[in-house]
Amino acid sequence: MPRLGDALKAGIKGFVNASKPGEYSAGGIKVTCPHCGNAVFKMQGPFSFQMWEGGAAYIKASLTCLTCGLIQWFGEEPEKLKTYG
Q1: What is the pLDDT of residue 82?
Q2: Are 67 and 45 in contact (CB under 8 A)?
Q3: What percent of the chain has pLDDT over 90?
Q4: Cα–Cα 20 to 30 A to 69, which of 1, 3, 27, 34?
Q5: Where are the domains of the chain?
């Protein structure tokens, strides 16, 4: 049975790795930047905001390209394939 300290260390490591840049897939397809072709992104989200009167949007994640800064929005959270840094 793992000790509490080991469990906490694993949780912190998972949190830190989740915030690092990486490669992602969405809908089973590897995500690349349509502007520059880069494949390394920083994930942010979720976001909820009012888009129009009486309607709202909920974005589960956004990926920001680390090369050109283009932001892509996703209604479902992309799967992280590889972590950098």
Answers
A1: 95
A2: no
A3: 52
A4: 27
A5: 4-83
d(CA 78, CA 67): 19
Only one residue has tokens 């494949």, namely 39
User: In this structure, what are the phi and psi dihedrals at residue 4, rounded to the nearest 5 degrees?
Assistant: -60, -40
- Give yes or no for a contact between 74 and 53, defined as CB atoms under 8 angstroms apart: no
In this predicted model, what pLDDT tens digit does every residue of 38-57 receive, in sequence order? 999 999 877 766 666 767 77
* Residues making up the chain, counted from first to last: 85
Inter-residue contact 60 to 46 (CB < 8 Å): yes
- CA atoms in the 13 A half-sphere facing the CB of 33: 18
